[in-house]
């Protein structure tokens, strides 16, 4: 049973050693980034998430929309229980597989095949399980003989394929993806889409942050717009993407 | 942020949970040993080789300076130095337990003790490669370590218990204050010379005995060295080592409990 329940989450980062002598403050409000303020001891504090509440259940495939620094990745990290919130409560039921950073758990000097094991173990699979699934993962990634070569010979799209294949083959209830699938080519995107649809059909939960409306439309059924760490809108994917496009002043059509 | 009983229990739970991930840290630890010597022909046996070279050179030089018979000095040197390499690595790698795994800490919610068990396991493997030199020396000089050598097992357990708190504490401090990380290698280099490894603890007299009596490294070296040479560590050595373990954990648990939630932001 997959469930993510966020209640009134606020997350503040203390920023160390960043006294800027550029200027004191800007008069114009920027739409980039979270909210900056001064903490009790005078250091800068970035409020990345601000009193955010959200409940997701089985079968939900949520798209995270928002400008650079709106809090998408931070929100994914809170869902993965990597960042404990400053205030508020996080309830996550089910096993979580995050895929936030493509480089992670992948050793550039090891072969792709070895990396299936390293990343798989990190995601909580046993070696015995991985041995059974390694072929399926290899096949899904379509990397063929490249799996016997060191990872440093891979392009970023190939790395994405492998990382994605591993993360979607582990036994998990919740999958968190950050701007990852977008690196793949059209053919891989189609495959990823099928895989994620299966994933959702099994009453699992998916959260995906991306700037590609096409990817989001294909993979998700719900969406939120984040702005300065707050939820600006939440609803069905198409409605939200259109609203987002209007607010950004750009055309929504499959940008 | 408060430090209360439940936070401290969380620390102990993390220590226990890390154990469940042993397939992960055993794999990573073994890979660390291998990757250090990637593409070299003899691989991890470089550890063995470099220890033997050290023992041959330093042994023949200092054995002469200290006018001790080789049959006595070489076993003392090889056991002491081998144990020092091990303890030194636990401290130096312990301080990097979190900084060195920053990408993983920001990516995957595994218990953070996994990174500590990984480094303990890695150094146990290196210790076993080094112990080949020890075995050769024991055979060569006819030192019989039996039956006291069995005491190496409880002694190692005690060292590992200390390795965990040292890594939790230094790792945490180093995440926040990186200067500490720069300081520790210097302190350890000094500790090597003031600890009876190249010399004998009974060759210091007068005020200089403080380098032995008040040196925590002396007790841990002795704890492992004595069984390897077939002696039983004295009651004092056991008592001090157990005392340091208790005090270390007593200090580390509340501090780590208080700050552990911040680690992901600081790395």
From TrEMBL, chain A:
It comes from the Bacteria. Residues 19-31 have a biased composition (Basic and acidic residues). Residues 4-253 form the ABC transporter domain. Coiled coil: none annotated. Gene3D superfamilies: P-loop containing nucleotide triphosphate hydrolases (3.40.50.300). The keyword ATP-binding applies. This is ABC transporter ATP-binding protein. It comes from Microvirga terrestris.
Automatic annotation (TrEMBL), chain B:
It comes from the Bacteria. It holds the Pfam family ABC2_membrane. It is a multi-pass membrane protein. The chain crosses the membrane at residues 45-67, 73-92, 124-143, 149-175, 187-211, 236-257. Residues 24-227 form the ABC-2 type transporter transmembrane domain. Belongs to the ABC-2 integral membrane protein family. This is ABC transporter permease. It comes from Microvirga terrestris.
